[in-house]
Design brief:
The chain is mainly alpha-helical. The protein has one domain. The protein contains four helices and no strands. The N and C termini lie far apart (56 Å).
Length: 87
Amino acid sequence: MVFAFIAEFIGDGKFDGWFRALGLLFLFIVPFLTVWRCVVGRGRGMAEGQDAQLQRSWNGAVSHIRYITAEEYAILKSKALAWQLGN
């Protein structure tokens, strides 16, 4: 949970550098209270941020997947069968 808090806190563009430094300082002084405060205060925002990151990752993965056409499949299949019969 602490690592998720650090990743969320540093990666969030809503906070300036001094606030991030102060939050990390409190994290090392009173870790449980700081994480509890973050979950209570920003729990919904953290979940929405994770959902947005997951959606961006999914869209990126889907855009890299190339679907083959029926003609390409037929060519690949005939080459594979020809190779198999040759060996």
